[in-house]
Design a protein that fits this description.
heterodimer, A: 225 residues, alpha/beta, D-Maltodextrin-Binding Protein, domain 2, 2 domains, 6-stranded mixed β-sheet, 5-stranded mixed β-sheet, 10 helices, elongated, B: 391 residues, 3-stranded antiparallel β-sheet, 14 helices, 40% helix, 19% strand
């Protein structure tokens, strides 16, 4: 973290394009991005800006440690990681939802008519497969459901089909993957969009510069809506 | 066990090698010396204590981070997660008949179950507690001393941010927040989730003035002038008293020459229920975490049956050292090699000579591993010892 630079951590993957577009539209920086994705650090010496390209799930880590002053990360990632950061702005893009989904067959036979609590009353256990154990756990706790969370690394949809879990908690943007695997949402856990986050110390020590950047982004978002 | 590197230690603890250990010790010693010069006396408390004794008094965030185990009689023991609680216990149970205020300082390792990679689970703190003084003078002393600690370490661009929980409460009350809504608002501010904050504002009906105050609250950072901005809005006596305390503290910190290092943030919180007045944190460029922090905790000692106001701060030693490294401060002269190396046929003579030289203040190493004089001399020469004696 160089003292007079502001470093922004940008997420690789589905949020990157929108993030770069936003920075450009807000008049902050037009990053000439290398599509091959080899280059990981970009710097604008004049404007004293730098950006790091990192894995989406790593953005909060870079920001929490102060390796980046600002970052763009999905609320899903922020919720799951629970890092100590400031959440400055809702950027609006990258919209998706956390849902609880169950096999169509079970839903059709009425297992979820009285919600998850009804399912628990009937079957005595609720096993939840997910890539997001923290989100799933806090949802269960909030709803007062004594479920069991099973952490998987991917292809969560498989779990209820082969009897590893009763339901899944997963991110849904279009809902196609669920449909293809004969799953349907039975409850919504949370909504998620991309957020602008800041390191706690940078938010103090570089307050003026960060607020100026936040204001121009906010202005740009307002114009678009 | 082939791969010692990975099996040797649990995550979050570390070894300090000679250079690091020496830097840490020298910083600790100079901080203790500084604290003593302000009248603070060192105390030592046990590394572990009964859970049931400490738990009711702990800062809420620490509860989930405790290392607990069970002793041979089935009682739950905790490793201390901070030093403030043990010192509060010490004062409440053993020193309540003393003349107050009491000033205590400490250097100690503390233990917290941090889940995040890269954070230490055993770390070192140096701090002070000023117990039995309720006035703004005490707040100013604590903040002034913390500023001195930064100066002593040679950290130039440090910044101390100050908040006040009564003022924040007054601002929220002024916006019509009831107790429950205040808790909700504070939870959001404590998490610094300004997106949720915006939503909270848009979910309620407020007057124009109230809305403006709330919208500005997370961004109200700056010098003494931001206190003027909210003064007219505060109604409760506690909040106004809190505000005039902030003004007083600012005056004194100006006298200490700290005005360029201090800013106010009226939306600032450290936890939810523990602190009762002024709160603060210290930062330095290049370190992504607060280096130190503290505040007034007037309701802690009563948890041990002794109602008594108190305030204090703790410095995270490793983060302080990190900030010093960022400033390229040579914390100590490079590892001092010995001034003399002595090897000889008669070990008694060697030891005697070494003792004489050490009494004169030299660092002296002697040969103890049975090497021939030639081998020993080669070793000392390689190490760069300026004087080699062969007896």
């Amino acid at each position: 973290m160089e003292k007079d630079f502001v470093t922004i951590a940008l997420p690789k993957g589905r949020l990157l394009k929108e993030s770069l577009k936003l920075l450009e539209k807000a008049g902050i920086w037009k990053v000439s991005f290398d599509e091959n994705g080899r280059k990981l650090i970009y710097a604008d010496e004049q404007a004293k800006l730098r950006c790091l390209i990192c894995r989406t799930a790593d953005v909060p880590t870079f920001v929490e440690h102060g390796a980046a002053d600002l970052g763009i990360a999905g609320k899903d990632v922020i919720l799951e990681q629970g890092k100590d950061i400031c959440e400055l702005l809702d950027l609006g893009f990258g919209k998706c939802r956390f849902v609880v989904a169950a096999p169509v067959s079970k839903v059709e036979q009425g297992d979820f008519e009285k919600g998850l609590a009804g399912y628990l009353a009937q079957y005595g256990q609720l096993r939840v497969a997910t890539k997001f154990p923290r989100v799933a756990q806090s949802y269960l706790r909030k709803e007062g459901l004594p479920g069991e969370v099973i952490k998987l690394s991917g292809n969560i949809e498989l779990a209820p089909l082969v009897g590893l879990a009763d339901v899944i908690v997963d991110l849904v943007s279009t809902g196609r993957t669920l449909k293809e695997n004969n799953l349907v949402p039975v409850a919504e856990v949370a909504q998620a969009t991309a957020r602008l986050i800041a390191n706690r110390v940078s938010y103090r020590l570089k307050h003026r510069r960060l607020i100026a950047l936040v204001n121009s982004i906010q202005e740009c978002l307002r114009k678009e809506n | 066990m082939e791969d010692w590197g990975t099996v040797l230690m649990p995550g979050g603890v570390r070894d300090l090698l000679p250079g690091e250990a020496r830097q840490k010790r020298e910083l600790e010693n100079s901080l203790l010396k500084l604290f003593r010069s302000w009248g603070y006396q060192e105390v030592v408390t046990p590394t572990f204590e009964f859970y049931e004794v400490l738990a009711p008094a702990l800062e809420e965030m620490l509860h989930e981070q405790l290392y607990r185990f069970i002793d041979e009689e089935g009682r739950v023991i905790v490793l201390r997660p901070d030093m403030t609680t043990p010192i509060a216990r010490l004062v409440s149970t053993r020193l309540r008949t003393e003349d107050f205020p009491l000033r205590f300082c400490y250097v100690a390792n503390v233990f917290r179950r941090e889940n995040h990679a890269g954070k230490q689970r055993e770390f070192y703190q140096a701090g002070v507690e000023l117990i039995g003084a309720a006035g703004a003078e005490a707040d100013a002393e604590i903040l002034g001393l913390m500023g001195e600690a930064f100066r002593l370490a040679g950290i130039k661009d440090f910044q101390i941010t100050i908040g006040q929980v009564e003022v924040l409460k007054g601002l929220l009350e002024g916006c019509g927040f009831g107790n429950e809504e205040q808790e909700k608002a504070k939870t959001i501010l404590n998490k610094k989730d300004f997106v949720a904050w915006e939503k909270l504002i848009s979910d309620h009906r407020f007057s124009g003035e109230q809305r403006e105050v709330l919208e500005n609250l997370p961004h109200l950072q700056g010098g003494i002038e931001i206190l003027d901005q909210v003064e007219g809005f505060l109604q409760s006596e506690d909040a106004l008293a809190g505000l005039s305390r902030l003004r007083f503290v600012w005056e004194i910190l100006t006298d200490y020459g700290l005005e360029d290092h201090v800013s106010f943030d009226l939306g600032f919180l450290r936890g939810l229920g523990y602190y009762t007045g002024i709160i603060f944190e210290g930062y330095a460029p290049g370190v992504g975490y607060p280096l130190c922090g503290g505040g007034r905790y007037d309701r802690l000692l009563e948890k041990f049956g002794f109602s008594c106001p108190a305030t204090g701060f703790a410095i995270n030693i490793e983060r302080f050292l990190l900030a010093m490294k960022e400033e390229k401060i040579q914390v100590t002269p490079a590892m001092r090699v010995a001034d003399y190396f002595i090897v000889g046929e008669n070990f008694g003579e060697v030891a005697k000579k070494a003792r004489q030289l050490r009494e004169q203040g030299f660092v002296v190493e002697i040969e103890v591993s049975g090497r021939s004089p030639e081998e020993a001399v080669a070793y000392a020469a390689k190490k760069g010892v300026p004087h080699i004696l062969v007896m």
